[in-house]
Write a structure and sequence with these properties.
The chain has 420 residues and is of the alpha+beta class. 35% of the residues lie in helices and 21% in strands. The chain has a six-stranded antiparallel beta sheet with strand order 1-2-3-4-6-5, covered by helices on one side. A four-stranded antiparallel beta sheet has the order 13-12-15-16, with no helix packed on it.
Length: 420
């Protein structure tokens, strides 16, 4: 069995010295480390599964094989694959910024220009891997980071599938995060490049509205909505979403895979056209000199006239207000941030309690609050957005898992991975 003890700052992984623990996942732990000779920072993913868990081990190797074959500015690069004390380690590019999920949580729906810029970078990365016969199968905001230079990086090829690596998912099973799975993945367990296009549509919807298109009170209802492709039009949640953008999302989220974009490249072309229409790349052509001078003169006369009549109107209004206040001094204040209309600003979050789902991957678990048993996953729990939930998950043959999270306004399903 692999040692599961967390690496400590100062320990060596090959030529890298561990600086800090970044996080834990179902298959391993991720650390920030620095190369002792060239000073380069890296993220090191260390497998914490046991040797008997051959599927997890093979997935880890496949992740390294797939990521080592890629070189794209919007994909985190793989530096090395090494073993330390019998534990395989993936050494990859360190991205010093928030995940897209964290950005949305902090800012709410992104402005259309920002959303399209980020989305186009992600689609470019997906088009690149599709050309190489790779299907990502886990496209979601948590697997996208934006570094301090504003560069978008696609992460986590842990469940990606490629023609040149061994398949690990049995027929009829599915892998990935439920809210981003395409209808055919839920029904058959099979995924291809069109399933990634569906997930891209879910991602874009979430970027511009701040919530997933497929939300419901129970996990079963979420799956039903996905299978029927039923969701609220994004423009109802954010009026800044224009028909052209809504059309792109709608074409990604077609129930029939054949009705979606035939490729990520085709999707990227539509996004590029929309960005060009929304943000002109060049200034409007200048008017001929004579016509320009005449037009400027006409505009100047109009502006002076308008200003004159405006001053008269303001003076009359002040005289009227002053009289109605019995001669008292009248002060006018103007707050631009309050008077300005911001169509992309998210609606205030509600503190109204809602039903969330607690679930685990591959099986069921008993849910406890402290020592009090609550039920079995998938377990429905009522909580308010912003509330911190602390639970214990127990399953025979697995380690007890303590979970703690803050309830999101937009997220309804919280799924955890149990470890043996």
């Amino acid at each position: 069995m692999y040692a599961r003890q967390t690496l400590q700052p100062g320990e060596m992984v090959g030529e890298y010295r561990v600086l800090d623990l970044l996080g834990r996942g179902g298959m391993g732990e991720v650390y920030c480390a620095q190369h002792t000779k060239i000073g380069r920072l890296a993220a090191i993913k260390v497998l914490t599964s046991t040797p008997e868990e051959t599927a997890a081990m093979e997935r880890f190797r496949n992740e390294a094989r797939i990521q080592s074959s890629l070189s794209h500015p919007n994909i985190a690069a793989l530096y090395d694959f090494i073993e330390v004390d019998g534990r395989p380690c993936i050494v990859m590019e360190y991205v010093d910024g928030p995940t897209l999920s964290e950005m949305i949580a902090a800012r709410g729906p992104l402005a259309t220009s920002d959303a399209l810029a980020i989305f186009q970078a992600i689609v470019s990365a997906i088009a690149y891997i599709h050309k190489r016969g790779i299907v990502h199968r886990d496209i979601k905001p948590n697997n996208v980071k934006i570094n301090s230079a504003g560069e978008v990086k696609l992460l986590d090829f842990g469940i990606a599938r490629a023609a040149f690596v061994r398949g690990l998912t049995a027929t009829g099973q599915f892998v990935g995060t439920v809210e981003y799975l395409a209808p055919e993945q839920l029904q058959t367990g099979r995924a291809d490049h069109r399933s990634d296009v569906w997930a891209l549509g879910v991602l874009l919807y979430e970027i511009v509205t701040g919530r997933s298109p497929f939300t419901a009170a129970t996990l079963g209802e979420v799956c039903d909505r996905i299978k029927q492709a039923i969701y609220e039009p994004p423009s109802r949640l954010n009026p800044a979403v224009k028909p052209e953008l809504e059309h792109i999302i709608g074409r990604c989220l077609k129930r029939d895979p054949a009705a979606r974009y035939s490729s990520a490249e085709e999707l990227a072309a539509d996004v590029e056209r929309l960005r060009c229409r929304g943000e002109p790349a060049v200034s409007p052509p200048a008017l001929p000199k004579a016509a320009s001078n005449k037009r400027e003169a006409t505009i100047l006369v109009g502006v002076v006239g308008l200003l004159f009549f405006s001053l008269i109107a303001i003076a009359a209004l002040l005289a009227f207000v002053g009289g109605s206040n019995g001669g008292n001094e009248t002060r006018a204040s103007f707050a631009p941030s309050q008077a300005r209309s911001v169509p992309n600003a998210p609606a205030p979050q509600s503190s109204k309690p809602k039903t969330i789902i607690i679930d685990v991957f591959e099986g069921q678990a008993q849910v406890y609050r402290g020592d009090q048993p609550l039920g079995t996953t998938p377990y429905e729990l009522t909580a308010s957005p912003g509330e911190v939930v602390r639970l214990n998950l127990k399953r025979y043959g697995f380690k007890d898992k303590a979970v703690e999270f803050t309830v999101s306004e937009t997220r309804h399903v919280y799924t955890f991975r149990m470890e043996k």
